[in-house]
Design a protein that fits this description.
By secondary structure, the chain is mainly alpha-helical. The strands form two sheets. Strands 2-3-4 form a three-stranded antiparallel sheet, covered by helices on one side. The chain has 16 helices and five strands. About 65% of the residues lie in helices and about 5% in strands. It is elongated and about 100 Å long. It has two domains: about 90 residues, Alpha-Beta Complex (Outer Surface Protein A, domain 3), CATH 3.90.930; about 220 residues, Heme Oxygenase, Chain A. A hairpin with a 2-residue loop joins strand 3 and strand 4.
Length: about 325
């Protein structure tokens, strides 16, 4: 494997801050702390080398510009930069902003638009559609609450790894606040299940087995929190978007299928807590201090956002297919 050349490492090379230039009898000396690099030269070549070193000190010239302006030393520029780089005396002075990079604020708007488009074209809510036409059963609604309960119960443990990956103090504090705000919400949703006749005594729900898509959502959130923080930040809003139309219809539909107010009230209370704490804006808050996100990183996150949207749609399909079976085990506890 060949090491990258000088022209691959630098666009606008410059001497590192703190490097001093001094003349010597046989050339030029570069002083950096206790380190010294002597460049031997004499006569006219010494003046030319001094001009080149001064240009490196300024750091406003590309390598091609240096070759044009210092033609007598054109063939020596690459070897000189390689040696200075080896000694840690030279660095890059200008970093060009990629044309396809986005700030955190711009990317937040972009992924929200992407999620809306993905939902409209590929992931319409079956639960909502079936409530509209009256075909959603009582068992399917209970199944929805069970899968929701599992996700909410696991959320703090899935969010926590992001604390060790936080890329700024501000981000760490934001994740901490979000984590604390998610604690014990499963107790509220357990009351919802109890009202529907689900036995929650003696920790029985600890053995609840989620549907594959519910487990996949949990796994994705936990993996991103630990291994790809940008994806973690970027998908959180998908779990916190308020479903106003869904909740409005749910409030009247529960009574139609024989579910008491004690079932729907905790679901609405949990939604109201999320709204009051601005959980929908958690992604915007976490992305806000990112100055530049490369196209490569954007592409990874875009795929993960769409995958999460599709998995959420798949979760609804699985809820309907499993809990709609006449012999379905509810809750999914197999002991």
């Amino acid at each position: 494997m060949q090491a990258p050349g000088t022209t691959e490492l630098f666009n606008f090379p410059t001497l590192r801050s703190g490097v001093e230039i001094e003349g010597s009898e046989d050339g030029i000396a570069l002083i950096y702390g206790n380190q010294s690099c002597d460049i031997s030269t004499s006569g006219d070549a010494k003046q030319s080398m001094r001009a080149l070193v001064n240009a490196l000190k300024d750091g406003n010239s590309s390598i091609d510009d240096l070759r044009v302006r210092h033609q007598s030393l054109a063939t020596s520029i690459d070897p000189l930069l390689e040696e200075l780089d080896r000694l840690g005396l030279v660095t890059e002075s200008k970093f060009e902003w990629p044309l396809d990079a986005r700030s955190g604020q711009e990317f937040n708007s972009h992924i929200r638009d992407l999620a809306i488009r993905a939902t409209r074209t590929r992931c319409k809510s079956r639960l909502f559609s079936m409530m509209k036409d009256g075909s959603l059963t009582r068992e399917m609604l209970i199944g929805y609450a069970l899968e929701y309960y599992y996700l909410v119960r696991e959320a703090p443990g899935l969010i926590a790894p992001a604390l060790s990956q936080a890329d700024s103090r501000r981000n760490r504090q934001a994740v901490q606040r979000f984590l604390v705000s998610e604690l014990d919400h499963d107790l509220m949703l357990a009351d919802c299940l109890n009202a529907a006749g689900i036995d929650i005594s003696q920790g029985k729900l600890d053995y609840l087995i989620p549907l594959p898509s519910t487990f996949a959502l949990c796994a994705a959130l936990g993996v991103y929190a630990k291994q790809h923080l940008l994806s973690f930040k970027s998908i959180l809003f998908l779990f916190e978007i308020p479903s106003i139309r869904f909740n409005d219809m749910l409030s009247t539909y529960c009574s139609k299928v024989g579910l008491p107010d004690g079932f729907s009230a905790p679901l609405f209370n949990h939604a109201n807590i999320n709204d009051s704490l601005d959980h929908e804006d958690v992604t915007a808050d976490l992305l806000n201090d990112l100055t530049a996100i490369s196209r490569e990183e954007q592409l990874v996150v875009e795929k993960n956002v769409v995958l999460t949207v599709e998995t959420m749609a798949q979760q609804e399909e699985e809820i309907i297919n499993y809990y709609g079976q006449p012999n379905a085990v509810i809750p999914r506890i197999f002991q």
